[in-house]
Amino acid sequence: MNYLAHLFLSGDDEDLRLGNFIADGVRGQQILLYPERVQQGIRLHRQIDTYTDAHPVVAETKERLRPRFRKYAGVVADIFYDHFLAACFPLFSPVSLEDFAANAYATLQAKPELLPERVQHFLPYMIRQNWLVSYAQVEGAAQALRGLSRRTTFVSGMETAGEELLENYSFYQEEFERFFPQLQAYVEQQIVLIRN
């Protein structure tokens, strides 16, 4: 899953949300440098990724993407799923996507000392361009994938992923709709375990 999903699945706990968001920038024993609740958020992020990567519905999505995007199929799937979460946000939250995004950005800016260098670098761009809200439009997801494509070492094809999303929109939406409620249920169980 991508940024929006990780932030959303963290619930209202700001430290859990912060950890879940920064996890990709935290390596190995660096986790021990963070407060306990942030550490739990980092671990939750990793559990979400493991669950997602092993899920049969996600495998269907990646299988459709693999001929065109090869090893980047999972990255493209993550952005596609964030698109559908953003586009259907009122189905999942009583809070508007705009309000959720503003609150998430405020949470992330509140503790700059806890942000890894990589996150400190891209967060201002993320906020200025309002990535979380932009994902709701196909063009916003396509723009995110074009940006990722420019940063890959190998030819990724991700610059054409917006076309793929439009061509097979209903297939990807149906897979997201089957998968995401299962992911939500899994994460809710994990959060209960964290709290106990």
Name the features:
12 helices; 196 residues; mainly alpha; globular
Strand content: under 5%
Domain module count: 1
Approximate helicity band = over 70%
Class inferred from helices and paired strands: mainly alpha
Low-confidence stretches: none
Largest sheet: none
Rg over alpha carbons: 16 Å
N-to-C terminal Cα separation, in Å? 25 Å
Q: How many beta strands in the DSSP annotation?
A: 0
Mean pLDDT, to the nearest integer, reads 94
How many separate helices?
12
Q: Give the overall shape.
A: globular
Helix-strand pattern = HHHHHHHHHHHH
Report on this model:
With 196 residues, the chain is mostly helical. The chain has one domain. Helix content is 74%, strand content 0%. It has helices at 3-9, 14-22, 36-54, 56-69, 73-87, 89-92, 97-109, 117-128, 131-134, 138-151, 161-167, 169-195. Helix 1 (3-9) packs antiparallel against helix 2 and helix 5 (73-87) packs antiparallel against helix 10 (138-151). The protein is globular. The mean pLDDT is 94.
